[in-house]
Amino acid sequence: MSIYKKYCRESFDKDGKLINFEIEYPKDFNFGYDVVDVYAETEPNKKALVWCNTKNEEHIFTFADIKKYSNRIANTLADAGVTKGSRVLVILKRHYEYWFVAVALHKLGAVMIPATHMLTVKDLEYRINVSHADAIICTPQDDVPSNIKAALESTETVPMLWCVQESVEGFCNLTEEMKLANEELERIPTLATDHMLMYFTSGTTGNPKGVIHDFTYPLAHIVTAKYWQQAEEDGLHFTVAETGWAKASWGKIYGQWLVGSAVMVYDFDNFEPKQLTNIINRYGVTSFCAPPTVYRYLVRKGVPKMPKLRHASTAGEKLAPDVFQTFTEQTGLVLCEGYGQTETTLLMGNMKNYTPVEGSMGIVSPMYHIELQDKKGNAVPQGEIGEVVIVPPENGKQIGVFCGYLDNEKQYEHVWRGGVYHTGDAAWQDENGLYWFHGRFDDIIKTGGFRVGPYEIENVLMEHPAVTECSVIGVPDALRGQAIKAVVILQNGFVPTKELEKDIKDFCNAKLAEYKWIRIVEFVTEMPKTIISGKIKKTELRKRA
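Request: output the structure for the sequence above.
Response:
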């Protein structure tokens, strides 16, 4: 039986829709001991992780396996000096060792700092310096060890270094060392309010910020997994994200294991739509979550039948209407969009037993009290655009919202100004109570007295056959305050010309209200993007304008 019910109270209406959700937990809650080890003791053969890679290697791990290997790693790390509060940078791609390491660090009370293998030497130097990392555990692939060593030449920190799978000069071999470690681990005292996890934000408006979550964070993902992704008891959930992303915590471990679902992991480097669908069918994946980019490629290639797949969800950016419609037509599954941040868990989503609506973020998670406010802190009327803010409960403790920015109390106080958490995202609510994303609050374009979100224009731009990628920004304009500018990367076979610029404008403006018309088109060969999430840095585009 899934363990999540032990930690929450939930109620439903007559149609089975979740209308109330409250989390309850002991003061020493620890995901490693209270979820993984409890499953290992009560249902040792319950499937936890199904892993395969592009080399046709395959491993299936039970919760008994996860307990055993996480205990071995915890003992190995502890013997070397990793202890409660130690900060450990973890760069393990989609290797199955990530799940052993994550649980081991939780059991030790250490702070795990997941990061992507795509970080440059400069990126690593920054993260090691500001986090004061005590240890680093990494993949041997993609020059990660050599990049780490190069970064350490310019840092004051001297962390312990481990690599998995292979022996690398300057790194201890964690795979070999854990084989000699004890499989038993006496519970190490931790508190639910202790720091457990830190992600660096994508850095769209400055240097990446360290976002810190405590040990209650996994519990807040029960709603993410059960009611949005619809992971189910003894099912198999597949979230595509690499472990350096916060989305891995959303879809590859916490909520899924809490609700009793195994996690599917496909360890790959180069995305190939056919490979993903083969994995889904080969292993009988029951629920799937991926960013819109993945669905876009699937639709272009033609989605094969996936008879065992029962639910599909997406988040991370706005989903184009044609992708939504085509995927549904080809699979019979309606894509369920969701919304949240690195600083939170799922805030809104097209939830279980609600009818998903194309383009909508759905309803507010019953775990949160959310309002839409203007810049003065006033609630905006239905149908008008406002900033998404979280109003904390009376006791002041909002489960699922981060507990601090690393060494940046001033920024933390800023986002919590006025007694509410400011997401910086803009949305509006329709007459049916559904929410619609309108872009970053800072990305809103004010043109001719109108407020325009860039995403709806970008969706129209993507319908033009010459456009492969785009971003819309506002640029200074003497007449309108701001003019709408489209920055465009062209498909292969198209070249920038004045004629093509006019054609793109005419194509889009014929489909847009006049106040949303594109006034300027710029052709580029690449976009400035964040390393971790790959999101376009609109602030950089605005600086160039």
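The first strand starts at residue 8 and ends at 12.
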